[in-house]
Hints:
- The chain is mainly alpha-helical.
- Helix content is 56%, strand content 6%.
- The chain has helices at 3-6, 15-30, 38-50, 71-90; strands at 12-14, 56-58.
- α3 (38-50) packs across α4 (71-90).
Amino acid sequence: MDLNETYNFEYLVNEAEELVKKSLAKYMQKDNTICDCQECVLDTIGLALNSIKPLYKTSLKGSLYTTVPDEKYLESLDQAVKFAIQKIKDNPSHN
């Protein structure tokens, strides 16, 4: 059984993804040495997301509320983004 054929997963969202994107954008505004090509941005976001706890939310009526993560979570997310930025800077997928 293919669940994608039976169920609509557009309402299953990892809120951590948006938080990581916002954090990366903040660092990119401050540091013009961060590569802004599609590949590096996606690699950085993917690496950061793989190192933090996901924040999945669901709602059949759309996003009715936003949960604000605690300060400890936001600090770990920020550290994951900084680590990912440096890792991708040191080892970009492109030449």
